[in-house]
Amino acid sequence: MPQSIRLASLVLTVAGLASAASAQSLTGNVGSANITAGDRAAEARLGTDDEGTAQSRFHYEQAFSDWYQLRVIAAFRKPDDQDWDYSGVTFENWFQWSTESKSGEGFNGGLRLGYTFSGQDRPDEAALRVSLTDRFAKDWEWRANLIAGIETTDDPSSGAELESRLQLTRSVPLTLTGADKWRLGAELFSEYGNSRDLPDWDQQAHQIGPVAKVDFGSGLSLQTAVRIGLTDGADDAMAKIFIGREF
User: Fold this and answer.
1) Which residue of 27, 33, 191, 201 pairs with 108 in a disulfide if CB–CB is 3.0 to 4.6 A?
2) What is the 3-state secondary structure of the chain?
3) pLDDT tens for residues 31-62?
4) What is the value of pTM for the model shown?
5) Which domain holds residue 187?
């Protein structure tokens, strides 16, 4: 476990030092680095904040090997008192470069390269995400994502938008709703702003809150979470729900 503990400490340190992006993600997840050849899945996500803004996304993913997976995402947004509009389509390339051993040593490490073709005259975006996952003490799991995104228009904004996501969950012996595979825990989302001119801590967007994950069997899963703002630059509150199906 020493290697996992050192990595967790490093991620927490980077997160503590390092985003308020122009629009907080209401459908974001703390993703896993794990890839299994042949896996396929589809998922629908919905999130909303305390001001009535909503976001949704639908994605399909397929793993072509034990180290490469492709995900295609269609995203939509509904500002308060307005109609839904199309936000863009994203192609994400996943690569896994480290795998946790059967004995529990090491961790799952991965890299995601994504490109978003935006709609409604918004700039296209490219993003890089480092994902780390580790299960420890049998029932516990921590996840960490470090993200940097840039605009790719003819006249892009300088610098990169920086973000981190942390999650800690534990499997619990519940048998609610016909499911017996539950994980409960908490997550911390942080958006630090543009790398060329990071705002003060209180003007960044930091949110924390509980998260629940349920596996119903037959590939069907559900995740839900609520987060509250820790800083003035964050939304006061948000909620999300994901429904997924593996094939």
Assistant:
1) 33
2) CHHHHHHHHHHHHHHHHCCCCCCCCCCCCCCCCCCCCCCEEEEEEEEEECCCCEEEEEEEEEECCCCEEEEEEEEEEECCCCCCEEEEEEEEEEEEEECCCCCCCCCEEEEEEEEEEECCCCCCEEEEEEEEEEEECCCEEEEEEEEEEEECCCCCCCCCEEEEEEEEEEEECCCHHHCCEEEEEEEEEEEEEECCCCCCHHHCEEEEEEEEEEEEECCEEEEEEEEEECCCCCCCEEEEEEEEEEC
3) 999 999 999 999 999 999 999 999 999 999 99
4) 0.87
5) 2-246
